[in-house]
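Data deposition worksheet. Section B asks for the primary sequence of the deposited chain exactly as it was used as input, without tags or linkers unless they were present during the calculation. Section C holds the resulting structure in token form. Section D is free text for depositor observations; keep each observation to a single sentence. Incomplete worksheets are returned to the depositor.
Section A, Depositor: J.P.
Section B:
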Amino acid sequence: MAEHDDDGTGQGGAGQGGVGKGAAKASSGKASSGKGDEARGGTSKAVASEGGKAGPGQSNTRQSTPGQSGAGKAGPGRPAPRESARAEPAPAPMPVRDPARERCGFIAVLGATNAGKSTLVNALVGAKVSIVSHKVQTTRVPIRGILGVGDSQLVFIDTPGIFNPKRKLDRAMVDAAWGGAKDADAVVLLVDAVRGLEEDVEGILKRLKGASGARFLALNKIDKVEDKSRLLALVQAINERVPFDRVFMISALSGSGLDDLKAHLAAAVPPGPWHYPEDDISDAPLRLAAAEITREKIYKWLHQELPYASTVETTSWKELKDGGVRIEQTIFVERDSQKSIVLGKGGATIKRISSEARHELLEMLDRPVHLFLFVKVREGWGADPERYREMGLEFPKE
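Section C:
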């Protein structure tokens, strides 16, 4: 299905609510897709639409709003559901948390760009809550991932990479990262063990000297370091600059060392009631989560500076009578030449972006998704305070 439109805007439902754990079987049916076309006239183009249901046997992750619980997937201390027709022993009763022993805390994950922060948060939570790309500076706003470990609830703040900012957007991203660290109960500094003590890490260490709260150091990608003596030397060099309460050797990609990290963080957060329902894995609004998924696909399929010169906004979110959802998003770029690249020859690139984003949204929402992408030229959007508010960033002061 293809659609033409001149401005790509519309009024939709709020599309709010946190992301919840859970899995359910999707309805049978093949996903339908449409060819993206350019709309004539104006600077806005309706370029692609995607809609349909999950195919047979696909398993999808369910969204839930705060206060709602997902169903069907094993959570902390919860036995996995069984679907066998044979008689099975009754599952053990789900453990009940003791309110007197509950702990909850916010943990900021800091690091230089491409240190693996989003990969780490996703691995700790056990689900994708942050977009991931091999390109630097992918994360723009702090994203919270939520994990229950025994009586403790850990709220991880995946922060933008910290680097030397040059543009307004860069400054806003770095300010957001330090803002997340300031409000956290603990900080995990993630350092790429391969790259070592680089300039950006040195800058982070200088600002961490006066930080309050528990500080943990995690050396990532240790499996890629052949000479393990380098790891000990790196730990010593970092601790000489800023002392850390504990050091962890991990691989966020393979999961090595993460159980030990989770256990120690669970004991480090302060006593107190849980802030989120047990089944929530993120507090990101659905509109923002959907825009982030599309932006991840832009980073995947577009190269050089174009991903950094674009942003995505969910402009309409409409609940449909059949239980599906119609989502309209606008991709803002700065120049006409960039718009042509996003579209691709015959709309091929935008169709690829739309198709991959829709399939991931279908898995996340566990219902039919009809996704419509539009491209608009907005010169100087990087200096527009409204775009920053839509992204969840504070516009930097001069």
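Section D:
Residues 348-365 form the longest helix (18 residues).
The chain has two domains: 19-63+285-391, 99-278.
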